[in-house]
Design a protein that fits this description.
homodimer; 154 residues; Arc Repressor Mutant, subunit A; three-stranded antiparallel sheet; 4 helices; 23% strand; globular; DNA-binding
DNA sequence: ATATCTGCAAAGACTTTGCATGAGA
DNA sequence: TCTCATGCAAAGTCTTTGCAGATAT
């Protein structure tokens, strides 16, 4: 969703205003929270953190803003199987990040791993190209998760 | 969950009785439905199909049975981002299958792809081994999804 | 016989929507 | 000014739970 009217260049850098969206206090606060954590926050987690600084901001606004961020590609939405969605900024200071996860089915702990990423990314690129062609899909994203038991839960 | 008391060998072949679970009509009906489709059924989808043959079977039982099948490893549970869980038999006639998906974010269509699987599986095995060691995780499963727009939705 | 399983209804958890008020450009 | 954004409350979805009756072994 580059522009809210459906036209224009893709939105890549979190420039709310460049896409015609208003940069409000709640939206900045939510971005700040996402930008200052390495956790995978749920909507409520985000709300609680925002709430500490801006008690007037409501959970509804958090949901709406997160959804907006997802639609614009600034944030990735994940589901780790615990019934609530998790959100993570799609890019760090170094540009678009990869979001490969190790999920503990015992305690729900989530580890972002970056090992082996290079090899994975290379293969994914090839696979993506092949799949795009074969199924005529325009692929925008991928997700890799490994599920298992962490040290404590084994 | 090999045995309901937590001991014994892993449950691999759908042998309900071998694990101490009762093989009832609803459970057989649900397995039949899962076994006769290539779709990714939600709990309600499953319920509707079961309901055609056995109108007395309730949605609650479908949820409970699917959860049981997931716990025993007979069925994989997926989330494709549309707010409802999807279920797929973990193994076909040829043994454990791989479940890599192409998800259309426009219409929700899901494609199981098997192209490039060999290369992917090989890389996944290596990655899995590396991650297991580094993070001391006992990895039991993996999930790969590509998200994008299908032919119609572009 | 008896521990499991089932169906219904109700409750629970997460998320979305309606609407009047408030705020950014 | 005039849309767009917000907050509250209510509603919507999917899923789980409590409990009495039914069933498999």
């Amino acid at each position: 969703m580059p522009w809210k009217d459906g036209t224009g260049p893709p939105w890549l850098q979190g420039k709310f205003k460049g896409c015609g969206y208003r940069l409000t206090v709640p939206r900045q606060a939510i971005l700040d929270v996402l930008n200052s954590t390495t956790e995978h926050l749920s909507a409520e987690d985000t709300y609680l953190k925002v709430h500490k600084v801006h008690p007037a901001i409501g959970l509804t606004t958090v949901y709406r803003t997160l959804e907006l961020l997802v639609q614009t590609g600034m944030v990735f939405k994940f589901d780790f199987g615990d019934g609530r969605a998790r959100y993570e900024l799609s890019e760090g200071p170094k540009g678009i990040g990869h979001h490969h996860h190790l999920v503990c089915t015992g305690c729900g702990r989530i580890i972002d791993y970056t090992d082996f990423i290079d090899e994975e990314v290379e293969l994914l690129k090839r696979t993506e190209k092949g799949l795009s062609k074969k199924y005529n899909f325009k692929i925008t994203n991928h997700m890799i998760q490994f599920h298992g038991l962490c040290e404590k839960c084994q």
